[in-house]
Amino acid sequence: GPPAFGTATAAAAAPPAMPGQIQGQAAQQQVLDQFESLSIGGPGSTSTMPPRPGAAPMTGPGSAPDGTGLDPATLPRPAPDPNPPLAAPVVLEGSCSPKVMRITCGAIPSSPNMVPRYGLPLGMVVQPLGDTGNGDVPVVTFGASGIVRCRRCRTYINPFAVFCDGGRRWRCNNCLLLNDVPVDYYCALDANGQRRDKFERPELCQGTVEYVATAEYMTRAPMPPAYVFVIDVSLSACSSGLVESASRSIRDAIDELAASGDGRVMVGILTYAADLHYYPLRGKSGTPTMCVVTDTADPFLPQPDDLLVNLSDNKELVMGLLDALPAMHGAGNTDAQPNQRDLQCAFGPAMQAAFLTASHVGGKVCTFVSNMPSVGAGKVTPRDQAGAYGTDKEHLPRCPGDSWYKKMAAEFSRTQMGVDLYCCPSHGASVDVASLSTLSRYTGGTLCHYASFRADVHGESLRHDIHHNLKRYTAWEGVMRIRSSRGLRISAFHGHFFVRSTDLLALPSCDADKGYAVQISHDEGALTNSQASFQCALLYTNNMGERRIRVHTLGVPVVSDMASMYKYADAAASMSLVARLCAEKALMGTLEECRQLASRRLVDCLREYRHMHAAQLRASNQLVFPSSLKFAPVMSLSLTKSEMLRGGMRDVDVERRCAALYAMSSLGVEDTMRMIYPPIYALHEPLPDSVETQGWPRTVPATAMCFDPR
User: Fold this and answer.
1) What pTM value is reported for the model?
2) How many angstroms separate the CA atoms of 243 and 419, rounded?
């Protein structure tokens, strides 16, 4: 990879080494000599690098047909397809789909000493509500004995559990404990030791199932889905068209929102500028009214029983209010003379008011903001960005500017409330995404950022994002835990959640787009079993008020050689996990350190593989790398050139960079790959009339040499 070559070149140009450095410099020079011996350049190339005398022609991937060197047009690149095929390693029969649990290496090393040699992180990316690709998830209801689980590690019964003693006992695949089979769950075994009803019970033959939770899994009665819309109506929000776009988009989704919860959905609407505006939504009057509270230091609810109401019973009043909001706040009125209060933003008090409105039921707070918080709690001020770059304080503009945001996020999480943010700053303005995103990060929410928002430019994107958010399948009041086989443990969690205990993740709201990554470590010595298993369990409430447990189980083989690890490596999952590590590093270090981290992990991995095939490297005079990681170099390079990591302050402003950091930490593998290596369409060519019938338009590789100069 380029970083390794750059290091070697720098070493060759350095001053004379001290005696203690001679050995390391000699090794670097050896790498440089081997690199220079490769003939790089295809037909017509102007490369003047001479081949090493006696060297064999290069015939590896990307080589020119005549063996004269490397043809860039044939280099391996990820498929530029809007829906790329899933290239995940093969897992054991009975495992869940890699779309919901995707491990970075489909072979677990038996020895902990193999992990640092491998270079890339060992872990997995989990999308607990992701589409399995097999239709609806089967729902399982147990009898009076309750859900069958291991009495020691609490693993749910799954396809990798082994039944013995004529079917009267079963051995847990994680902790290996023998458990008694409940009387009403008993079934005899066949000649192969399998239950005769194995294929009649989804939990014994499918990797993904959903259990109907009993009363023991509830701390309170399931709450109805609740949405509190908090809209910025300051002067900049009105002039940019945000108020009108947000109100119209929410109104268009009201009918489907009301139908999604079988008449149980609750809705509340607040607006804010320098003051707080409440709207009672209960009553026989069809005319919406507004209550203004100017005390932002200690927000209170003027009519607490009327601010969060059942949507089906009060839909006409809600829709009437959404229609009237732009006119009520002067949206589109360019003749009004602004004053200082029109420019202020009481974002913090508005979030406190939303918390008071729905804290008794939980739910989701959808907040629209166009100004930097300047009034009351959560007030922030512009921070010096230019002076921080390149110093040990470079990361500070990417971190929250006030500790209030994390404290408020903890309160939202405690009451099962998620926060979705739509950041729509006007041209040249800032909303301090670094601070505001903390509310969404610890509550499992969504963040959408529209730089220099204008309704005529971004209105359709905002409408799409709002509709997608309100219509997608959502899990409420969720908690998630991931269990692993004996000898392995989950050592780190990466994503947007609040950790309640050592391994219990609180997810006030969760949906199919959310991904969570974990790292896997060895807990003891070498593994003795031939396979390892992992189980993810998400306990949540659905829109119908039913408490469910969605369980995914993954089985992978255990290997004792490095060759098998490289054979079953998953480049996309590995780089998705590396991207999350870089996103977290950006909140503590410099961007250059993050870019080095992205490259170093891959370089270490490929260097180890190169050492394993040193004889082949000398014989063929070509770069040697595993076919499973052939796309990893371009993914790593694309990651360093993404909005999250590239350049400095002048290349990507801190608002866009913080939004990219947030997105990279919350997406699944496929969405992360599209963000790193997006499909590029040739729009100058005739476009299809219909994607469904004619397919997507032609794509080109994401490299300048493939672009049409016209």
Assistant:
1) 0.86
2) 19
